[in-house]
């Protein structure tokens, strides 16, 4: 049975789409600040604090593996949080994930080091990282669903892109916080300085809670609950009616490997003895790339509202495989101008095409009653593979960790499934929100319903 059209007067109140987008942006920025400071610490600090200093190569490999642990926990978090998000609503999940992320990140800053408690230290680190992964699993899916279902006709791409702009804002904030921390004297940095960015998560949680608790539930979810009721087992409905789209999202989500390789592996490689670039300079590469991404993401998303999701996503996925090769080559030369230029091009401009459009692209594949589950499960399984791409890259780079071309080819190979997924997907940018997830005849698109 299809969901009836929203009756007159049940649309989102004036200003609510903007409020939802703002809450998604700020909440995602604050939450992913927590998530990305771990990535910087895993590349620069944790090999010496939590792992065996006598074998730097192995310590770095193990530290990068803990970065991937959160991605392994994400599918589990997606199953649980997706279920409750489609039953209890988007708002409750958005508040819960923010508080869980803030707590787990604060606890990382309180952990004892390997010198203090031995092998227990990395175990506690992994447990906190698992909690971060569970939180992140529900964050983007709930924020995406919230903004998509509040968005006015013809602008879903633009409004949902605020979630990813927020993610980039969080990464930028994390990088800016780590720049002065990384510049501290070595003894202060390794003893207490690295803890400061993690302790700031308390402020992150408080600010995010104040913003999100005032947000209204979406009209689409309220209408669904009133007209048909929520699905008792959303995952069963999802896998029965939308299994092909779940597989498509899993494949498309592998494009996130570009982000993890750029953010973590390339940072570790550039600052290793093989290249010898400074920590501060490489952190500035990430910072400037994210500044550009903050502008590029809404522009790409707006373009997708005009020409469609698929062509914009394809630009990002296929283009990233080429520009990542250029970036890693530039890093290998040790040239700061080349590294800054190619880093901004790769991550700030080209990757932003796929990154900015996927919230709408994936969310529009599913009906309201399973949207949060569909996006959460599909993306988090794909993101899990992307998270461990860093660990595989460290192995592929060889004993010396300097085979950048092999890592570039590996990243390009991971961009192939997203391209195939996008080519095989339906174009949905003009399908009315209430009709999303319905099985229309091939080649037949419904006109967008526009209201004053």
UniProtKB/TrEMBL annotation:
Q: What is the lineage of its organism?
A: Bacteria, Bacillati, Actinomycetota, Actinomycetes, Kitasatosporales
Naming one, the record's GO cellular component terms include: plasma membrane
In what way does this protein cross or attach to the membrane? Multi-pass membrane protein
Task: Provide the alphabetized UniProt keywords.
Answer: Cell membrane, Membrane, Transmembrane, Transmembrane helix, Transport
- Which residues does the UniProt record annotate as the domain Major facilitator superfamily (MFS) profile? 20-430
Chain segments annotated as coiled-coil in the UniProt record: none
Q: What are this entry's molecular-function GO terms?
A: transmembrane transporter activity
In which compartments does the protein localize? Answer: Cell membrane
User: Which InterPro entries does this chain map to?
Assistant: MFS_dom (IPR020846), MFS_sugar_transport-like (IPR005828), MFS_trans_sf (IPR036259)
Q: Which domain of life is it from?
A: Bacteria
Query: What name goes with this protein?
Result: MFS family permease
SUPFAM superfamilies referenced in this protein's UniProt entry, alphabetically: MFS general substrate transporter
Segments traversing the membrane: 61-81, 93-114, 192-211, 249-269, 281-300, 312-330, 336-362, 374-398, 404-423
């Amino acid at each position: 049975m299809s969901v009836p059209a929203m009756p007159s007067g049940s649309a989102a109140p004036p200003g609510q789409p903007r409020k939802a987008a703002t809450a998604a942006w700020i909440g995602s920025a604050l939450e992913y600040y927590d998530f990305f400071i771990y990535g910087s610490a895993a590349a620069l600090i944790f090999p010496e604090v939590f792992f065996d200093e006598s074998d730097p190569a192995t310590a770095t490999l193990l530290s990068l593996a803990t970065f991937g642990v959160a991605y392994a926990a994400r599918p589990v978090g997606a199953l649980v949080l997706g279920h409750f998000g489609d039953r209890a609503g988007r708002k409750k999940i958005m508040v819960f994930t923010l508080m869980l992320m803030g707590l787990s990140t604060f606890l990382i800053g309180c952990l004892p080091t390997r010198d203090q408690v031995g092998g227990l230290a990395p175990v506690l680190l992994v447990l906190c990282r698992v909690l971060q992964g569970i939180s992140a699993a529900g964050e983007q899916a709930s924020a995406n669903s919230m903004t998509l279902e509040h968005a006015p006709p013809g602008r879903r791409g633009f409004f949902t892109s605020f979630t990813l702009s927020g993610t980039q804002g969080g990464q930028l904030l994390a990088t800016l916080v780590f720049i002065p921390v990384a510049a501290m004297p070595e003894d202060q940095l390794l003893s207490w300085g690295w803890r400061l960015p993690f302790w700031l998560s308390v402020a992150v949680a408080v600010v995010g809670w104040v913003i999100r608790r005032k947000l209204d539930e979406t009209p689409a979810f309220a209408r669904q609950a009133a007209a048909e009721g929520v699905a008792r087992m959303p995952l069963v409905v999802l896998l029965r009616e939308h299994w092909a789209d779940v597989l498509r999202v899993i494949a498309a989500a592998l494009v996130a490997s570009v982000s993890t390789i750029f953010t973590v592996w390339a940072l570790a490689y550039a600052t290793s003895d093989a290249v010898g670039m400074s920590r501060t300079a490489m952190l500035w590469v990430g910072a400037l790339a994210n500044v550009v991404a903050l502008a590029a993401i809404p522009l790409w998303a707006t373009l997708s509202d005009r020409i469609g999701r698929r062509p914009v996503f394809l630009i990002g996925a296929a283009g990233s495989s080429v520009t990542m090769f250029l970036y890693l080559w530039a890093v290998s030369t040790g040239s700061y101008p080349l590294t800054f230029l190619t880093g901004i091009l790769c991550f700030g401009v080209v990757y932003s095409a796929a990154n900015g459009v996927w919230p709408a692209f994936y969310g529009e594949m599913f009906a309201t009653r399973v949207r949060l589950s569909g996006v959460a499960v599909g993306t988090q399984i794909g993101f899990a593979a992307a998270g461990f791409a860093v660990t595989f890259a460290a192995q592929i780079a060889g004993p010396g960790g300097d085979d950048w071309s092999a890592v570039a080819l590996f990243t390009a190979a991971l961009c192939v499934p997203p391209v195939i997924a996008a080519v095989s997907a339906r174009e949905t940018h003009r399908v009315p929100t209430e009709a999303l997830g319905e099985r229309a005849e091939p080649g037949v698109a419904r006109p967008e319903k526009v209201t004053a």
